[in-house]
Amino acid sequence: MALCLLSQAYRFSVPLRRVGSRMEAPQRKHVPAQTVACIEHKGPYDDIPGVYHQLYAWARQARVRPAGPAFTRFLVSPNKVNWASGHFEVCLPVARGTAGSGDVHVKDLSATDVLAIVVQCPYSQMPAHYAEFLAWLDIEGEAPAGPPREIYLVHPGADGSGDPKAFRTEIQFPVSD
């Protein structure tokens, strides 16, 4: 009921909860500083898997082992995430001292505090979860302090296999203290 009211109050054009998808309650957490190998990309959200294939191919060739789950950082303000022509970077946590090559750059990301939710749904339903999360932030008086990122907890296999309804993604918005 509350989500229906939220949807009406914000006049979202997509439903906030879809059958077969789940969103857990937002949690405040601290994300420590980390070193990542990343590829920056401009293009639709649907390009993300292809960019990951490129990043993982580099990691295999360079014999780099991931130091944590892969994630995508959007490089635009939260209210300007455009699913059709986005600007993002795909990231793979790696050991300090790893050297990038070609399109792969290695950099250190600062520690940050975030509000995070975990959703279980096909990637095509992510825009609805972003709308719901942004509405929740607004109602709670929280303002994102930067662009969001997605950590892929359960994702397709390297060959694209997997049940999209089982995909689990953590959406994080940086927040100030």
Characterise the protein shown here:
The structure is a single chain. It is globular, with a radius of gyration of 16 Å. The longest helix has 15 residues, at 48-62. It is α+β, with helices and mostly antiparallel strands. Strands 1, 2, 3, 4, 5, 6, 7, 8 and 9 form a 9-stranded antiparallel beta sheet that branches. Helix content is 21%, strand content 32%. The chain has helices at residues 2-10, 48-62, 126-139, and strands spanning 22-23, 27-31, 34-43, 71-74, 86-93, 105-109, 112-120, 149-154, 168-174.
Topology, pairings included?
Layout: H1 2-10, E1 22-23, E2 27-31, E3 34-43, H2 48-62, E4 71-74, E5 86-93, E6 105-109, E7 112-120, H3 126-139, E8 149-154, E9 168-174
Antiparallel strand pairs: 1-7, 2-7, 3-5, 3-6, 4-5, 4-8, 7-9, 8-9
Summarize the model shown:
With 177 residues, this protein is of the alpha+beta class.
Query: In percent, how much strand structure appears in the residues?
Result: 25-35%
Count of β-strands: 9
CATH class reads: Alpha Beta
CATH architecture: Alpha-Beta Barrel
* Structural domains: how many: 1
Brief descriptors of the model:
globular; alpha+beta; Multidrug-efflux Transporter 1 Regulator Bmrr, Chain A; 3 helices; disordered N terminus; 177 residues; 9-stranded antiparallel β-sheet; single chain; 32% strand
